Amino acid sequence: MGCVTTIYEVAERAGVSPATVSRVFNGSPVSAEKTRHVRKAAADLNFVPNRTARTLRRKNSEMIALILPDIENPYFTSMARGVEDVAQAAGYSLVLCNTDDDPGKESQYLDIAASEHMAGVVLAPVARHADEQLLELPGRPLISVDRTTGLPVDAVMMDNFAAGKDAVTALYQGGYRRIACITGPDDVETAVERARGWKSVVDRRQMFADPGAFTRFSTFRVDGGRTAMASLLESPSPPDAVVAANNVMSIGALQVLAEAGMRPPHFGVATIGDLPFTTISPKSVTVVHLPARHMGVTAAQLLIERIQGDPQPVRTVVLRHETRPAAYPHPAGA
Amino acid sequence: MGCVTTIYEVAERAGVSPATVSRVFNGSPVSAEKTRHVRKAAADLNFVPNRTARTLRRKNSEMIALILPDIENPYFTSMARGVEDVAQAAGYSLVLCNTDDDPGKESQYLDIAASEHMAGVVLAPVARHADEQLLELPGRPLISVDRTTGLPVDAVMMDNFAAGKDAVTALYQGGYRRIACITGPDDVETAVERARGWKSVVDRRQMFADPGAFTRFSTFRVDGGRTAMASLLESPSPPDAVVAANNVMSIGALQVLAEAGMRPPHFGVATIGDLPFTTISPKSVTVVHLPARHMGVTAAQLLIERIQGDPQPVRTVVLRHETRPAAYPHPAGA
DNA sequence: CTGAAAGCGCTAACAC
DNA sequence: GTGTTAGCGCTTTCAG
């Protein structure tokens, strides 16, 4: 049963002082015999230490908050697993908070993290931190992942610009020559950077007179991918391939392509981010594998170092992605 | 910045007593003028109430725990969204905990929920509660979802037996006559029940001399579906259709089928649970839609009623699934 | 190595 | 309406 007995009751039963009980549960030196008595009494009484009281006293809890924009996106759940594994191993419990990409919810959870004296927080920040409404730091160790904050905090990132470049380059090498780009909202950093990466290659190859006409900003969701892909297919001179800037957008794009009877490799597809739960052969699509889990692991490691008092100056770690070109190139003519 | 100022400092600055500050932040009646002063002082000082202290005093926090076996399964994240929406609306923050289907982690998180005085918990219990190692109740409102606990607690469930029946029946009506079953571990209740539902129909139709030869117990993961499907295809007289007992197993099964060049409707597939992020036409597969989000919503509602002191006897709510038969039946002969 | 005692910041009686 | 005060259960000096 829950949290009902206190160290006082345990102390009495064990014939020691409350302080000794506390010491036993905190690894402070206590004589073997008393330790035994305390453990026995605690077990008998079904004692579970009251974390609230401990946290109030210590001004520090054993919880780490992971604040994510979208818990339903496998990219972030994969990251969560990475954070969790490291946190658990270091004796911290992970609590996950979903912001829905809403700055209001984000600052609410940051307040809670502070107010609950959590040991630290890993934050994948929401997109829209309009001007003055800067992210409010919780006054305890914080690592940002996936997106930057503009604030001087540790960060674990990937090279979104390079990912965009690599995606389009792999398609080009597969024989495609009119490679469009569908990406997320134009105020989301990762979306913009990946599109910029795409554009840099497209410009260099002089692929389009007007690259803007082959770019679609949409939502980072399945229907965002659908809308964008449909719109591209309707254009006067459609592309022969597309770079989709995130995992679930790719799903939407592939759905629309399938419905139009155009599947890879007839129409080239590169996805930035792994296709979750796919039933099509992954070999038919160029996948820029994103180190989501690894980002989580790294962020958690940095965080724990900070919690333990690491005094290093602020760091940014950039993790490398890995491009896996489609096995089948473009079959002959466009 | 974090949690540094106290009600005492706010009180001093506002020229009132700490109790008044507390009252302002808890909606107790305070004169308009003092309220104004307090709010001003709090804003100036950037005051955030210390939840740890409040919780210690009230023996109740504003957090709800949602303890899930697998945060990476879209079935559960969808459920999480349901819980979250209701919790948020009622003024509770949701913390998600991932047990990895490990009873140890589960009881750890239950202890934490109790020890942190969380307002309540929604629990999707792990499978293996071996005999004596019964689930330990946290001494506060708890609703179980998806799986039963064997304990007298409120529960929100679905009819797994019926889901199994409906899946195989839809395939039968689509013209398939040798319908196998791949399901989860034989100690997971949902897995067993769904398989039992399948068997009841298969028996009644006298589909197989030995139904056991057409059942595969595996893991509730993608590779579990792969292994099971592969094994079925290798059998001396293979089936012409399959019921896959959960969403991600179905993915695995569809992958193996695609690799073997057998796609629906040539080979019939029914999936219990929605296909996440699918790129194949959902119409080609029979989907037994599971009300995951709705289960989350319902569980959260029941929980909040309990938190508010609802004295009703223990309830079990069973939510209805919805069968969506594949659009295309079996093309002629097996 | 052990006990006594002072709070951590807040809320909820209890007086006024 | 408002202030005073006594803890919630724990950790942690400080003595011994």
**How many domains comprise the coordinates of chain A?**
3
Low-confidence stretches of chain A: none
In percent terms, what proportion of residues of chain A is strand?
15-25%
State mean pLDDT of chain A (0 to 100 scale).
Answer: 93
The helix content of chain A, as a percent range, equals 40-55%
Order of helices and strands of chain A: HHHHEHEHEEEHEHEHEHEEHEE
The largest sheet of chain A has its strands arranged as: 2-1-3-4-5-11
Estimated structural class of chain A: alpha/beta
Give a short account of the largest sheet of chain A: 6 strands, parallel
Biggest protein-protein contact in the assembly: A-B, 57 and 57 residues
**DSSP helix count of chain A?**
11
Assigned CATH class of the largest domain in chain A: Alpha Beta
DSSP strand tally of chain A: 12
The CATH architecture assignment of the largest domain in chain A turns out to be 3-Layer(aba) Sandwich
Q: Globular, elongated, flat, extended or rod-shaped: what is the shape of chain A? A: elongated
Describe the structure in your own words.
- 2 copies of one chain form a homodimer.
- The first copy, chain A, is of the alpha/beta class and 334 residues long.
- Chain A folds into 3 domains: 7-50, no CATH class; 60-158 and 292-320, Response regulator (Rossmann fold, 3-Layer(aba) Sandwich), CATH 3.40.50; 160-290, Rossmann fold, CATH 3.40.50.2300.
- Chain A contains 11 helices and 12 strands.
- The longest helix of chain A has 16 residues, at 74-89.
- The first copy, chain A, is elongated.
- The N and C termini of chain A lie far apart (69 Å).
